[in-house]
Specification:
Layout: H1 3-15, H2 18-47, H3 51-55, H4 61-70, H5 75-105, H6 113-158, H7 164-198, H8 203-215, H9 218-244, H10 251-287
Helix pairs in contact: 1-9, 1-10, 2-5, 2-10, 5-6, 5-7, 5-10, 6-7, 7-8, 7-10, 9-10
Length: about 290
């Protein structure tokens, strides 16, 4: 099957499931509000209705420094809250991916809250086992690969005569780490697709089947993943460029900024749906 036809099929499948996007958005919004609530309460209690509170910019380092000093005794609790939030969001993402893939692959079935969350529960434990299998692979991609490249290219940096050589080496190291990360992400995406498409109850068997599937068509599968990733990066760049031309003060700026942020979140969630749907389309095209 053509990579481009799978991308087109993925875009079409994601666009036909607006309720999936709506559910994902609402779940992310609720989670964000729960996490941000304590920090909002802290800022409100600290600033109240003061003149500083009305004039405070989005990121005032003086105020942040004073806030950290004033509440230094609660810093460990704040750090624990943030780390716990990251962990909970990872588990939430695993949970929601079951409903996302389940609804995308059920082309004839309706998407309701009941069917979506039913799929979330059905695949959660299998997806969670895949997530635990993926963690050491992510550590290798983001830790071991850059460390090995640094050791290998260390002499080149030490003997560099200009600042461009270390910069180029650092850029290349980052790019290779991201490519390794994309490989890990792609393999486990296909394992998730396999679990849903084949009703496979074994995470290890699904991972092995995904590796076997990609082994016969590795570069096409990776090319599909990278093309969608580049499309997402292009969309992100356009959003950043549009944000740069907006006025930087006033109520209109605040309203447009909030609306633009929500639209970007929707775009990010839709892009994730396209990743799943396009890879599912490619998987089914290679098997059926």
């Amino acid at each position: 099957m053509s990579v481009f036809s799978s991308i087109g099929g993925g875009v079409a499948a994601a666009s036909r499931k607006p309720r999936v996007l709506l559910i994902l958005y609402l779940m992310n919004l609720i989670f964000a509000l729960l996490v941000a609530g304590p920090f909002y309460a802290l800022a409100k209690a600290d600033l109240g209705h003061s003149l500083l509170g009305r004039n405070l910019q989005a990121l005032d380092f003086v105020w942040l420094g004073e806030l950290v000093y004033r509440y230094q005794n609660v810093a460990p609790a704040v750090a624990a809250w943030l780390m716990g939030s990251v962990l909970l969001y990872a588990v939430l993402s695993v949970f929601l991916s079951g409903g996302t893939i389940g609804r995308l692959l059920d082309t004839e079935g309706r998407t309701t809250a009941q069917t979506f969350f039913s799929d979330c529960g059905r695949y959660f434990w299998r997806f969670l086992r895949l997530f635990l299998l993926a963690l050491p692979c992510y550590v290798l991609a983001l830790g071991a690969v850059p460390a090995a490249l640094s050791a290998l290219l260390g002499p080149l940096i030490e003997n560099a005569r200009t600042a461009w050589t270390p910069f180029a080496v650092s850029l290349g190291r980052t790019a290779l780490a991201l490519l390794a990360l994309s490989l890990v992400h792609m393999v486990f995406d296909y394992a998730r697709v396999r679990i849903v498409a084949e009703a496979d109850r074994s995470a290890l068997r699904a991972l092995g089947a995904a590796l076997a599937f990609l082994g016969r068509r590795f570069f096409r599968g990776w090319g599909l993943y990278l093309l969608i990733a580049m499309g997402f990066l292009a969309g992100t760049g356009i959003a950043a460029a549009l944000a740069g031309v907006l006025p930087d003060e006033g109520l209109s700026f605040a309203a447009v900024s909030i609306a633009g942020m929500q639209l970007f979140i929707l775009f990010r969630l839709w892009a994730r749906m396209v990743f799943f749907a396009a890879q599912a389309d490619y998987y089914k095209g290679g098997h059926y």
